[in-house]
Each structure stands twice: as structure tokens, then as C-alpha cells.
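Anyone able to model this chain together with zinc ion?
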Amino acid sequence: MDNCLFCKIIAGEIPCHKIYEDDEVLAFLDITNDPEGHTLVIPKKHSVNLMDTDSDTFAYTCEIAQEIAQHYVNIGYADGINIYINSGVDAGQEVMHLHIHILPRKQGDGINFARTEKQSDKTLAEVAETLKLN
Ligand code: 5GP
Ligand code: ZN
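re: yes, here you go
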């Protein structure tokens, strides 16, 4: 996809620090190195985010993200792992090519995924009624 930063990384037009590569997926270090070892896992087939990625591609990308996370723990680099996907501008997505963030966590690293300050005035039952899928 023209003008997609991560497609350019896949094509080798922009350098990256590669962690894993196969025919379908590429994993490389996030440029921030925050926290150290912050890794992005992306499908080579361009899609924007969760909404337009086909389920096989998504499943395989997740499988590789899990393998990488397990590897970081197995080699003693991480004591724990956070995985997340920002999907949509309003969810903080900045690069419009699906990517899974892997954050290697170390005991006592002090990173805090703060809970939202905004309290809902709806009950859980009301929320479930709105959200239920089946
Ligand atoms: P998002 O906010 O879209 O979920 O995450 C995009 C991520 O891509 C950010 O964590 C950002 O640091 C990373 N990023 C942006 N530009 C580059 C780049 O040129 N190279 C690498 N390796 N990471 C990048
Ligand atoms: Zn792309």
C-alpha cells in the first residue's frame, strides 16, 4: 500500500530492527524503545486495523505475537507481558496498518496502565444489554 509506513518497512524501504519474519508476518522493535524491547507484530498483507483484517490473518498474527511473548519470558528478558492493539484514531492508533504491541514487563518496572478517571453512570446489566453479541 502506497504511503503506508509499515508497508515501507516490510518492503525494506525503511529500516527496522527485526525480531521475527516469515512469509506472512514481520515483528520489529518499536522506534520508541519504551519500554525497552517494545515490539510491533504486523501482517505483511496490508489492512488498517481490527475492523478490516481477515480472521485468518489476524489469528496468525496473534499466534506469532504469542510466540514472541513466550520467547521473551523463556529467555528471561521479561517477567510479564502486555499485549494491545490500538484500533481507530479515537483509540490512539497513529499508524494505519494493523499492529500488535508487545510490551516486555519487568518485576517492579513501575509501568502503570492507569484506569480511566471517567466513571460510568450505567449498571453492568445496562452495558451488557447494549453490547451483547448473541
Ligand atoms: P499506534 O499508536 O498506531 O498503536 O502505534 C504506532 C507505533 O509505531 C508507535 O508505538 C510508534 O512509536 C511506532 N512507530 C512509528 N513510526 C515508526 C518507525 O518508523 N519505526 C518503528 N520501528 N516504529 C515506529
Ligand atoms: Zn501497510
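The chain is about 25% helix and 20% strand.
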